[in-house]
Write a sequence for this structure.
DNA sequence: GTACGTGCAAACAGTTTGCATCATG
DNA sequence: CATGATGCAAACTGTTTGCACGTAC
């Protein structure tokens, strides 16, 4: 995320009548800088959050604040901790089962067709979906021949 | 799952040289009877597991045993607990965000095309995917108009 | 009889909450 | 200055582990 985008986000929050504390800004900055999904623990370790001296509880409360505002998305991947990242545009993830690296993929056109079919068939009104691909990243695929 | 299918599963495990204890059988029966993803807590509450008097620890150990055997699949949906279900055939889930009911959908043909495209483009070797749809089930959609 | 499944209790990780204090708007 | 954000400590939930005992094969 670019700096102006971050600023826009911050201003829009003010416009919605919500307070913008140093902690909330620091947390956004941590996620923006990392530019990949982070665990709560990783967020606490991040420079931005460490500098702001945020407590564990505050980190969780702030994450949930930003999530309610629609700015942060929570990923429930395999594994025991949740991952958090900026919810700038809809995308999916490639999760390497060896090195655990996560990368993003953007397109999911075909799903909208599927969703329409499902709605028609089952009466279920789909609002959103989560899709993750698990496998070997280029590097790990090479190493494991 | 039908009774003969369950029996087949049980026998195949014996054939693989693994022991079949009452607990392991009870747990499979609980999942087969429910016929929907269950949390560990729900499994412990189930008739089959309660009758077998299985300890919490045993339930988790047994779930992980069956998962390693490829019989049980773990679902990491939104929410704080994992859900477990029999891994009989690949499918996806419709999760109602209101009543929390989970139903299954079978088809995902179009994804194989996407997966090929991703592999070509990124070099990532996809082995499997998880896909969940969130929205309103027919009943909740009607109530919330 | 031996390898391994199980119960029990304790530990553990990740996350949440109550309350007093502090800062933002 | 009032509402609400934060730190601290404690609680809580879901899950895992160590060890002694029991059971399937």
């Amino acid at each position: 995320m670019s700096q102006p985008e971050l600023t826009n986000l911050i201003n829009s929050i003010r416009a919605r009548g919500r307070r913008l504390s140093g902690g909330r800004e620091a947390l956004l900055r941590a996620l923006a800088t990392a530019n990949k999904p982070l665990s709560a623990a990783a967020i606490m370790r991040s420079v931005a959050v460490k500098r702001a001296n945020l407590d564990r509880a505050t980190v969780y409360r702030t994450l949930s604040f930003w999530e309610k505002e629609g700015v942060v998305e929570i990923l429930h991947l395999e594994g025991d901790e949740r991952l958090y990242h900026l919810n700038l545009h809809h995308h999916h993830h490639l999760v390497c089962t060896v090195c655990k690296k996560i990368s993003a993929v953007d397109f999911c056109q075909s799903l909208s067709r599927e969703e329409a079919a499902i709605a028609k068939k089952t009466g279920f009104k789909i609002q959103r979906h989560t899709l993750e691909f698990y496998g070997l990243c280029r590097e790990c695929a090479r190493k494991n021949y």
